[in-house]
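Record type: monomer structure entry
Structure origin: computed from sequence
Chain ID: A
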Amino acid sequence: MSLARGLELIRVGRYFDAHEELEDEWRSAPSEERDFLQGLVHVAVAWLHAERENRPGCERQLEKAARRLGPYAPAHRAVDVRSVLGQVEAASARVAEGLLDLLPVRI
């Protein structure tokens, strides 16, 4: 279980595995870290939903990711949160147009 492993899984597009890894990390995290980790889980799950062509699920996860990660901008635990939020916003715009072919997450 680790943040680093979860981020690496996101980087290589293994969104389901990233979700599992980050969720394990989230469960044992102190309260001040939980929203950050859960926000990253939402990112992974949003991209997973996009791959599975589940637009409503993707939209919900993107909204949750933005809400949870926002307070941690511009950066937290070596993650460029501002960049991640920009990618979430760009993904939201694509999904709103009915497009689910999201660019890979750069994290």
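Annotation 1: The radius of gyration is 12 Å.
Annotation 2: The mean pLDDT is 96.
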